[in-house]
Predict the 3D structure of the following.
Amino acid sequence: MNNGQLLTVPGSTAKVLVIDDFIPGAKQLIDYAVNQPSSPASGGLYPGLRTPAPPGYIKYSLQKINQALAQHHQQQQLTAGESYFSMVTTREEDLSPAQCMPHIDRPKPTEYAVVHYLCRPPHGGTSFYQFTPTGQSLIAEHDYDEYLASLASHVADCPPSSHYINGDSKLFKRLLSVDCQFNRAVIYPCALLHSGNIPHPFTPDLNPFSGRFTVTSFFR
């Protein structure tokens, strides 16, 4: 069984789990997404479209990830969550400032996000960052408000470039990057600063068979 590779984010105790060949019949997931009757929707910070993944996907993913965590002697066991087919579609000129910087999903280090790539390497993987003014890479609840205040102060003096971040910037340092590979899953704490490695310039591709198409999950 492929239990993946457990990586440590430099300068942190946070771990990132990478599992290749994550799910059997991964190409069939794209067919399922294309044939769903409901239309994908945009919303929130995600720069694109999302629609729910099938419930069976969640059950399988939880089992696979928990087995891998146990094999790597990690104490966490995930029990519930939600999964979405996700496609990056927002043009660079339409990005908000927040979408041009790394972000966290939730300030909860014991909850996990998963990016499961259903696309190929040219679309870029996922990177994990440090906020250089404070040295933070993991933003938990007790320091979340302080981080937001510091970020707002520094962004006022040094606004982000108007494109997807893909490497070091004036305010963020890339600590770890995981390449995109079809049917690879990247599992990491929701509180880790991260961003997709979206190439610049970016041209949106709305075809799930050729665009930056993933399943994104949030597990507790």
Notes: The chain has a mean pLDDT of 96. The domain at 5-219 is CATH 2.60.120 (Jelly Rolls). The CA atoms of residues 29 and 129 lie 30 Å apart. The first strand starts at residue 5 and ends at 8.
